[in-house]
Amino acid sequence: MLKLDLKDRKLLYELDTNSRQSASELARKIGLSKDAIIYRMKKLENAGIIKQYHTIIDVGKLGFISFRLYLKLQNTTPEKEAEIIEYFKKKNEITWLVSIDGKYDLGMWILTKSIKEMNAFWKELLQNYINFIAERALTIFTKVSYFPRSYLLDQQSNQDQYIFITEPEEIKIDEKDLQILKLLAPAARRSILEIAQKVKITAKTAAARIKGLEKKKIIIGYRTRFDLEKLGYQYFKVHFNLQNLTTSKEKQFRQYIKQHPHIIYDNEVLGGDDLEIEIQVKTLPELRSILEEIQKNFAEIIREHYYFLFYKEHKLVFFPS
Fold first, then answer.
1. Neighbour count for residue 1 (Cβ, 10 Å)
2. What is the pLDDT of residues 234-247, one digit of tens each?
């Protein structure tokens, strides 16, 4: 494991907050030269700690419905499970795919523009693999927030919140904007000049269009995908079912979630459990400590909870290919 100093961790945090910042901007914030920033970024990329710079897009504003599917498999061999994973990886509708240790075996984020499209996907899945599926849980994301990883700097609370999944409303954009989104989604640090050349517009126009997409909150932010294992962290999902809930108590719970440095996602879903969060910590005892603290503060409204581990990410894109 690459040993990281405070400057490296500050760099990772800044890239997680806004991965499109220039080397000069990062240098000013971290207190290094531009060349030193470029060197450190290359070092982290070559070590595999930085895997990707990606753009966070609110797909709801483009008319997409965000489905979340969990599957528990049965009657599979390692070869059959690998085949099923490859099947999902190749599906354009699936933008995130992960292996799970716990109640389910696979989790995925599915984007379609209609129930009809989702139904076609569902029928094909069952036709191919129904004999290998023991349980399935399909829900709809209605709102998802993410928080920059404050734990990288040992901060006591999160500083920012970004909402990147909302209910479908479809803000109209033209073909040029769509091309820009497709270029930025997997590569947030693409230069304005490169984008302009590929879309066949001027650099000034490309910059203005990106600003316009940000203003419309179609582009929510620019983030960095890390290899958490190489950073020494594990990735857990925690589901809560609640009782005796009031608007005030829910607001207090979500405020707690928003400020906690190890909670990086807050999911609101239709048809699932009452409250879902995603936590990144170094050890299982550290996770248990957080859950004990939650139980202590909110025992009167928590009926039950369970958690599982996301142990291998197979696919992550923030825009359907």
1. 9
2. 999 999 999 998 99
Neighbours of 123 (CB within 10 A): 10
Per the CB < 8 A criterion, the answer to whether 92 and 321 are in contact is yes
**Distance (Å, rounded) from C-alpha 150 to C-alpha 159?**
8
- Give the other-Cβ count within 10 Å of 204's Cβ: 10
Task: From 149, 154, 156, select the one nearest 226 (Cα to Cα).
Answer: 149
CA distances from 83 to 66, 87, 89, 121, 235 (A): 24, 6, 10, 17, 24
Which tokens hold the place of 32?
């290094």
**pLDDT, average across residues 8-31:** 97
Q: First vs last Cα of the chain: how many Å apart? A: 33
Mean pLDDT calculated for residue range 158-164: 87
Question: Tell me, what DSSP letter sits at residue 321?
Answer: -
> Which residues 6+ apart lie within 8 Å of 250 measured at CB?
242, 301
